[in-house]
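Why predict the complex rather than its parts? Because the way molecules touch one another can change local conformation, and only a joint prediction can capture that. The input here totals 334 residues.
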Amino acid sequence: MAQFFAFTPKRRENGAIDFYDLTNYSDMKVLIATEKPFAKKAVDGIKNIITEAGYEVALLEKYSDKAQLLEAVADADALIIRSDKVTAEVIEAAKNLKIVVRAGAGYDNVDLAAATAKGIVVMNTPGQNSNAVAELALGMMVFMARNQFNPGTGSELQGKTLAIHAYGNVGKLVGRKGKALGMNVIAFDPFISDAKVFEADGVQKVDSIEELYAKADYLSLHIPATEQTKKSIGYKLLSSMPKGATLVNTARKEVIDEAGVAQAMTEREDLKYITDIAPETAAEMAEKFGKRFFATPKKMGAETAEANINAGLAAASQIVDFFKNGNTRFQVNK
Ligand code: 3PG
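Output of the joint prediction:
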């Protein structure tokens, strides 16, 4: 097996990982652990990148039990995951682990504090699966506008106001696609104050969440699940939306206050909610709200061959670049 010189992370006293020294990395084992598997082409591509770099690949797909993951990570030096939960227990079981790459955007499934405490670098692959999610968000709007493809008179997206909550990689693509469909697109992002960022896409910046929801015929959610955003979308915001408005969630279920949304939909028989992340109460909501509610059976926003290939190959390349060159550009636990 070839020997490679690379860098290994060192932890500062305050827990930050920002200091590297030369280490001889060889015989690295990269585990792909995906409960929801990548497309075969993506798996083949990942394997090529890893083996060409001189490292070993192991594959754990469609596992049903946490114990399988705990066993598989025991000798892994690197881990590629999707929405798989990397808890403190998983990190404890992974004695050799140096890097975790979440092939995707949201890394709320990784216990960052536990990883950082062990000097493990955590990365994501921002933007790589965004187009798939954005296309699904627009598709969900059409699906709801056309009575979930049931007979009857529907409506068109053209001329309606599409409001985008958070203007990151997915939000931007949803905005551009909405413009192409003739929608009036507005957006709010608490971290973007420069209106030019929105104007570059022909999108109008609004100054508050309240204004965004009050104007939204379609509200497309793109906020991450954080301590600040959890359960932040509920009764008040939904109740403020215009007549016949639709909430579209391709972000995370944790950001929704389910009871609040249900309450608003009970009081207002015109409101609709479609989500790619089934709420805990999905069955009850489907029964109660009929065609005003829909949840995909399993999160499918990033379930395209293209997104799997983009995100999977990026994850593999980032691991190789980290071991060989110490590149931590996409590290999220700095
Ligand atoms: C993401 O955060 O990238 C998306 O939610 C996709 O998640 P998935 O890889 O589980 O489909």
